[in-house]
Amino acid sequence: MKKQLVLLALCLCALLSLALCAAAADCNHNYVEQPGRTPASCTEKGSVTERCTRCGAERTTEIPMLDHDWVEDSRTAPTCTESGAINYVCSMCGTTKQETLAPTGHEWKESAKTAATCTEAGSLTYRCTRCGEEKTEEIRALGHDFSVFKSTSATCTAKGESTYQCSRCKELTLKSVGALGHDYETTGGPTCTESGKYTYTCKRCKYTYDSRTQAALGHQIPDRDSAEWKVYKRATCEEEGSKRAKCKRCKEYVYIDLPKTDHNYGDLVLTKVPTSTAAGKAECVCENCGTAKTTTIARGTKDLTDYSVPPVTASVGDGLVASGTKVEFTCPLAEATIYYALGGKSPTSNAARIEYDPDEPLEIKETTIVKVYADYGLAQPSEVLGLLYLVNNGSTYVYLNEDASNGGYMELETGKKFRPDDKATRYEVIEALDALFNSFADDSDKVFSDVDSTHKKAVAKFTGAKLLDGYEDGTFRGKNHIKRAELAKVLALALGLDTETVKVSAAKAFKDVAKGHWAYKYIYALTNAGYLKGDDEGNFRPEDNISRAELATVMNRIAGIKENDGVQIADVNQNHWAYGYICAAVYKSR
């Protein structure tokens, strides 16, 4: 019976244990640390026990050992040759360790030096800056340097001994040498144009001999197309030219011929009008040599627009003439009508032109600009001929130089700049006038306090001609800018334009130049003659300062200077509105 009760109790305990395990397996543990934690040290691990507050399950967790807390305990410094050490102790457990420090090695510094000679070694001593230990190194003897020649008994043809000296210690030595051989200097010989012999003379013993006669070498010249050839004489349609280059050997000029150029024929000029029964004729003339080439025009031809009327010629050339001089105009084409205009006006304008009557020559009574051309309705009109007749009747008018139409009256600054948009100064106007005009008048003896020596003569010239004047305070103010109205007066007076009977149509009147304006007559005299223009808005801008580009343009028109190109100007490109005028103003054509 007792065994049965024990067995029953064991079964109950097993069932209870199984129940608890099943409960624990299903528990969401909430572990809490239990008393009795074993802390970790730097020599042993620690541990902590935790129990679940729900099911009573327990677990133990290991705590890792701590690192030693090393603290330096003592130190032995290393020397140049011996090691040192650092001793450490753990502040927690007292364990010790040692770290070895390597020797520092010597720090050598030169302390003494004995120079080597040609025959004896030298030495170099070093001392350690830390421990004072010394060491010495040997410097090998240099040995003699017998490089200085002193004398020799050898000749050009015989053996001998040469004496040499050491460059360092001056010790002498002898060396046997063979014959020196001749050291020839060469003279003579053929030239580019003549044969000749070379003469060889020994510099030491003066032995001399001549070579065989050799032929002339001929000039050493560049290729014919090389830029080294420069034109010496320009070829024309009448004569051959030549160009030359220097011979690279004798430096004399060598010339080669340039062939004649082709004729430079101008436009076809009508010389005989074709009719229904007779052929006409036209000719073109070479602009270089004047050679004429005649072309036949078929009879009955009515379209003559490919031909132009011959130019008009005047019986009296322009320049200085006496008052009352009569000028006759002629045109080789009898059918053409001749028209002229006075005062610089355009003869192609119906309002200004006058038909020339061959029975009534033009009488020149005062200085004026005459423009004349010939017209034949079926062909192109002739070019307009401009003539400036100068009558010295006691006035102070100036007149253009003979070569004024060649241009080149303004200078480019350093760096090839023109400053086209800068305002022109009174000095710059004077300079342009001085380059283009002469004067009837005597130079003024008036002295201005501010005129520099460079401009003194030109200022005297044009103040004497009463084109410009100074100010009440005795200054000329040459560096001041000049207004467009002021320049119009100067140029109208210089050209002797009619300023008393100026007429202006309403269509050509400027909005900003009223009849009461002080420069009214000068402005319209100059603009009617076509030398100066207004802007696109119909204004003249009389109070604006004239720019350098505008000055070049008006002076070119007055002097009859054609537009030019090909001049490199740093601040004016080929698209600038005044490029052609500026090129002509700075470059003098021939």
Quick description:
With about 600 residues, the protein is α+β, with helices and mostly antiparallel strands.
Protein described:
Helix content is 14%, strand content 28%. The chain starts with a helix and ends with a helix. A hairpin with a 7-residue loop joins strand 7 (108-114) and strand 8 (122-128). The longest helix has 24 residues, at 2-25. A five-stranded mixed sheet has the order 24-32-30-27-28, with no helix packed on it. A three-stranded antiparallel sheet has the order 1-2-3, with no helix packed on it. The protein has 590 residues and is α+β, with helices and mostly antiparallel strands. The protein is extended, with a radius of gyration of 57 Å.
Can you tell me the overall shape?
Answer: extended
Strand content: 25-35%
Largest sheet: 5 strands, mixed
**Separation, N- and C-terminal Cα atoms:** 159 Å
Strand order in space, largest sheet: 24-32-30-27-28
- Per DSSP E runs of 2 or more residues, the count of β-strands stands at 34
Mean pLDDT reading: 89
Sequence stretches where pLDDT stays below 50 over 5 or more residues:
none
Share of helix, binned: 10-25%
Structural category is: alpha+beta
Radius of gyration: 57 Å
Number of H/I helices: 7
